[in-house]
Amino acid sequence: MAYEIRPMSVGEILDTGFRLLRNHFGLLVGLSALAYVPMGIMQIALALVGQPNKDNPAAMLIPVLIIVGVMLLVIAVTFPLAATAMTMALGDIYVGRPTSAGQALRQSWSILLPVVGTSLLGTLLIGLGMLLLIIPGIWLALSYWVSSQVMVLERIFGMAALRRSGELMRGNKGRAVVVGLVAFVLMTVVSGGATWALNAWPIPNIIASTVVGMITYAFLYAVIVVFYFDVRCRREAFDLEHLAQLVEQRSGAPAAAPAL
Questions:
Q1: For the chain, is the Cβ count within 10 Å smaller at the N or the C terminus?
Q2: What is the reported pTM?
Q3: Domain residues of the chain, as ranges?
Q4: Quick check: helix, strand or coil at residue 148?
């Protein structure tokens, strides 16, 4: 299924992100599950460990610490891997290339260390900016808004990736705030509404939260990938470049690979 690659309004970005999720639900939510299912299992384990020992908190301290430690280790690997794989798959889908979960995971695993390292560098710089009266940190956070997409889709890492993201976000920070706020509100409403009715039952509530989290996480990355291509169209005429490549392919002339 072809998707338009062009500058879009905020509503069009959100709508395209939703269509990507709907049309490739199994692939995207399956990759998102890599992060959320282990976390859900750990949360259920914590709930079960805590139930029989409510009157003796000291007895469950060690099991809880073990579960929390394992949870942190799992999250440190699965969330970056899932996010990278979703971005990889979404990038291929959006420009019309075939992809699969296995292909996305293999490619993501090969670049996971530089992706994590660059993300930590960006987080450190944002944190330092927050210490300087907060405003510089917010500015850097918006500048690095599409740094993950730059790393995964353009294979640029380190300070070069952060600078590249800053260049793309020049003049687009306000739109990023609007897109982020609207997406956050939509995700919060869906998540809150889906789990509110199960609030009295911890285990079903955790399961529902995990499922909803998988879906909203995939939706968020679909929206950010669409936004990334939107800013490339605005700053680099990526839509015209992509159209020229499609014309070359249809005419039978040899075409270069899309310049992601």
A1: N
A2: 0.85
A3: 10-102+170-251
A4: helix
